[in-house]
Amino acid sequence: MSGRFAGKVALVTGASGVVGRAAALAYAREGAAVLVAGRDDARLAEVVKLIEESGGRAGAFRVDITRSDEVAAMVHAAVSRYGRLDVALNAAGIFGTLAPLADYDEDTWDEVLAVNLKGVYLSMKHEIAHMRAHGGGTVVNVSSNLGAHWRLAGASAYAASKAAVSSLTRAAARDHIADGVRVNAISPGPIDTPMSARPGETREERDERMKDALPIGRVATPEEIAAAALWLSSPDSSFVVGADHVIDGGATA
Ligand SMILES: NC(=O)c1ccc[n+]([C@@H]2O[C@H](COP(=O)([O-])OP(=O)(O)OC[C@H]3O[C@@H](n4cnc5c(N)ncnc54)[C@H](OP(=O)(O)O)[C@@H]3O)[C@@H](O)[C@H]2O)c1
Fold first, then answer.
1. Which of 19, 74, 113, 120 gives the lowest tally of CB atoms within 10 Å of its CB?
2. pLDDT tens digits for 48-60?
């Protein structure tokens, strides 16, 4: 296979989800062998099948990213199956619920912070430890414009966790660029996935709401977000370090 990632190995967390899946397919199209990670075996198997059917190489790994031992095993699996790890995209994340802070359920708060923040910390910890010992690599974290860049009433846990991911990305980038590991984030606005719909809202109702909320008049496609992640993972962005690229159709312009 030819392409920007020919001969490279990519690891994608959240690959059983919409954005991770689009990115995994894109890395494979551009030549990478891809380890797709998540919790839903059936959806991971579907992504692997799609990649293999189009001539690419992929394998699935079940992981709970809040558990350090499982995340370490995920990195080990990428290396033992494909011989190396060059690229990591940390796309796993959850939204939690919408509720005013004083009413926000504590268990939900803990879960959102565990997945979105500790999960990204653990993913980076194990990915970077391997990359710095083996010639470097690139890491891209999927944050959100809802956090460091934009606010939405009722989304305190999600916004706090994603603002922290944006900040953690910069910290990791400074800590590890001298090791040859380039770390960046993307902060998307609403994407065409179930996560951008309010409880009970249909896709059409969501699209109608977004027409006015977003200057561009529509939500992003998963492929538009994947394209930005691939750029930040590739040598095309070789001087970009610790960036948090907002990709939100002008919401925060
Ligand atoms: N959709 C949006 O509008 C939007 C906007 C800005 C940012 N984002 C961010 O983009 C990323 C992808 O979102 P999406 O819309 O593609 O969501 P999605 O379809 O719900 O996918 C979320 C992914 O995260 C995985 N995940 C959740 N908890 C996990 C855990 N404990 N361990 C391992 N994997 C876990 C899920 O795995 P399983 O399904 O296998 O459990 C799934 O693969 C998220 O970080 C999200 O915050 C989304």
1. 113
2. 999 999 999 999 9
59 close to 35: Cβ distance less than 8 angstroms: yes
Catalytic residue among 27, 82, 121, 158: 158
CA distance linking residue 177 with residue 71, whole number of Å: 22
CB-based contact 229:23 (threshold 8 Å) = yes
Instruction: For strands 181-188 and 57-62, give the pairing.
Output: unpaired
> Using CA atoms in the order 105, 109, 111, 113, what is the torsion angle rounded to 10 degrees?
180
- Do the beta carbons of residue 15 and residue 24 sit within 8 Å? yes
Task: Please name each of the domains of the chain with its CATH number.
Answer: 9-247 (3.40.50.720)
Model pTM score: 0.98
Q: Could you give the 3-state DSSP secondary structure of residue 37?
A: strand
Provide residues with CB under 6 Å of ligand 1: 13-14, 16-20, 38-40, 63-66, 91-94, 115, 119, 142, 144, 188, 190-191, 193, 195-196
Q: Return the best residue to mutate from 11, 13, 19, 203 for the ligand 1 pocket (most ligand atoms within 8 A of CB).
A: 19
User: Ligand 1 center to residue 178 CA distance, Å?
Assistant: 30
For the segment 2-44, what is each residue's pLDDT rounded down to a tens digit?
699 999 999 999 999 999 999 999 999 999 999 999 999 999 9
From the CB of residue 7, how many other CB atoms can be counted at a distance below 10 Å? 12
